[in-house]
Design goal:
CATH architecture of one domain: 3-Layer(aba) Sandwich
Distance between the termini: 19 Å
Structural class: alpha/beta
Number of helices: 4
Largest sheet: 7 strands, mixed
Radius of gyration: 15 Å
CATH class of one domain: Alpha Beta
Strand order of the largest sheet: 4-3-2-1-5-6-7
Strand content: 15-25%
CATH superfamily of one domain: Isochorismatase-like
Bound molecules: pyrazine-2-carboxylic acid
Number of strands: 7
Order of helices and strands: EHEEEHEHEHE
């Protein structure tokens, strides 16, 4: 067994005060850092993703233009590459991250598996190359990018757990629905870490 930790989108714009701030987002940053300080030894590989949208573009309809965002399919402008909002939250210690993934350059991309690593690979290939059999998923947002990343991870054939104390969602109802959907799909929800 060889396990990876996938840290989804712990970025300034997804935390309190950000363009698309999620309640509990800053706590996720702090708590993932504390978790890694104790448990890095459990992981053969640590991967972190960033939403990394194009400036001066609606990014394939992902950014609301003309009408207000619906917070389901269209969103306020967020995580524009090169802006502070797109950076990792300062309380997330990324010194132990082996692989950085960027996603959403010109398109909506909720899943980490739609992104590209700094060396130009897709995440599925990286997991295969590294012989990863199991992944734990943490980060933001439970109902969007965590959900999509965890389901895609499962689709690559690895065993998937979501560490529920280390996620935060956009809305309570859709986050709860996402957790049920993930569990029904065969993802283990770990409520005590
Ligand atoms: C996300 C909404 C829009 C996420 C990204 O990271 O979950 N949510 N873009």
């Amino acid at each position: 067994m060889s396990r990876a930790l996938l840290i989804v989108d712990v970025q300034n714009d997804f935390t309190e005060g950000g363009a698309l701030g999620v309640d509990g987002g800053a706590a996720v940053a702090r708590d993932v850092t504390a978790f890694l300080a104790e448990r890095a030894g459990d992981y053969a590989l640590v991967v972190a993703s960033r939403d990394w949208h194009l400036p001066m573009s609606d990014n394939g309809g992902h950014f609301a233009t003309g009408s207000p965002p619906d917070f389901v399919n269209t969103w306020p402008v967020h995580c524009v590459s090169g802006t502070p909002g797109a950076e990792y939250h300062p309380d997330l210690d990324v010194s132990g991250v082996h692989v950085h993934v960027k996603k959403g350059q010109g398109v909506p991309a909720y899943s980490m598996f739609e992104g590209i690593t700094d060396s130009g690979s897709g995440l599925a290939a990286v997991l295969t190359e590294q012989g990863i059999t199991d992944v734990d998923v943490v980060g933001i947002a439970t109902d969007y990018c965590v959900r999509a990343s965890a389901l895609d991870a499962l689709g690559t054939g690895v065993a998937v757990r979501v560490l529920t104390p280390l996620v935060a969602g956009v809305a309570a109802e859709s986050s709860q629905a996402a957790l049920v959907e993930m569990k029904d799909a065969g993802i283990e929800l770990v409520d005590s870490i």
